[in-house]
Amino acid sequence: MGYVNASAFAFLKESYERINVIDVGAARASFMNELWHVFRRENVFSVGIDPINHHTSDKPGGPIVHKTSVDYSVFLQCGVDNVGVITSRTFYMNSDDQTSSFSELLLDNLSSVEDDESKFWYPQDTIDKIKNIENVVDDVAVYPLQEVIDQHLPEGIIHFIKIDAEGKDLEVVKSINDETLKSRVKFITIECPNKVPRFKGESIKMECINYMKSKNFNVFYQMNYEDDPSNRTPMSDVVFVNGEDL
């Protein structure tokens, strides 16, 4: 399966030489690697956001080292959520770094039985990993995304916002005010479970689609990983496009 954002990047390339992007949940900077297949680095102003850029290990088999700050024009070591003011939260880092989160895992919702549609399916080794909290970081700064935008992209089009916030994706969108969404943002991509949430408060796909439609954002492209024989995870990446011309 190809990159979920590739068609949106190609669409942007037809109209813009330089673009502004925000990457919420920067992690390994895979989003930026995708983007650089289409745009030259010097033509992208990028804001990267991730609370675990400092998560390193010298142990064999330990957590993957995140040193992604050098890949961004601005890198913020913080979290984003639908909060009214800047605050702080406890962040849970587990041995599967891709599911470290501010949110509480719903362990009863997880199962390694692939045909149990009442549960979120993961391979058993993945479940074992994400049950294992490696570290708890207290007092991690948490911003509304609107605050980040006001500070670092106060003017112009925000061509792409990628969100991968492990249970907080829709809440991150909700932390952007309506005027910014309507008049300045072109594309937003989020990750969401198809039917069963993994985290407390996580929105499933149809909830996300319905909310985005209420803000005049339509589905541009989606990748359902249940359709991928090499993955089979019951979740999707969904790319939304602003219905208004910018």
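(ticket continues) Second input and output from the same batch:
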Amino acid sequence: LGCAMAPPLAAKTKLSFAFVTDPTHEMYVYALHQGKVRSDTLDLELVTLAIPALVQGFLGRQYDVVETSMISIPRAVERGLNVSLLFTALGRLSPGPTLDIWVRRDSPVQSIQELKGKKIAVFGLGSTALTMIRVALAKEHGFNVELQGGDFQFLELPTAVIPAALERGEVEAGSLLYAQVFDAQQTGNYRSIYSGTGVLQKSAGARMVLPVIVGYPDKIAKDEAAYREFNRL
């Protein structure tokens, strides 16, 4: 009996988890990468994507679990795509420059009104951040914030090249993502010309939810234990 073959270990379930490419998000998966948090039953494939690709991956059901913009949920439901919210990705929006429009430090622009008709680089036309900025601009100043034919020319660019586009003068202003905001605050190379955070919090009476973590009900139903384990991790 002592020499008998040990029973084979149960195979782990595999789930793919796609989230936004940004250094700030590494702290959320650091413990997983380092093996400090592990699972005996679940293997996670971690995939980082730019926001436009992340939105497409969400709509195309390419991954088991996806970080997506809150605004993409109703759009997906309208298309007949059923989703389940697992939890908020980054909690609720804290006060600060999360929903800001930035210009170069030496830019002559001093107010949001001076950007009317100008190019503003954004990291996703369908992102929650841009949608909330547009809502704030409309509420506070009555701007026409349509993506086409509105008061501003919103130009979608890869997140990493937005600072370079600002430096070269290809755009007059731009939205910065999490780590870029931190760098801007540290270096002083860019300054905020407009923030929608206060307007939205006052209007809604609560902090805004930005990204969320979602799954698909039919996939979850096939292995609820795996998704509970994902939430634990």
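Agent notes: The longest helix spans residues 128-141. The chain is about 35% helix and 20% strand. Closing as not reproducible unless the customer responds.
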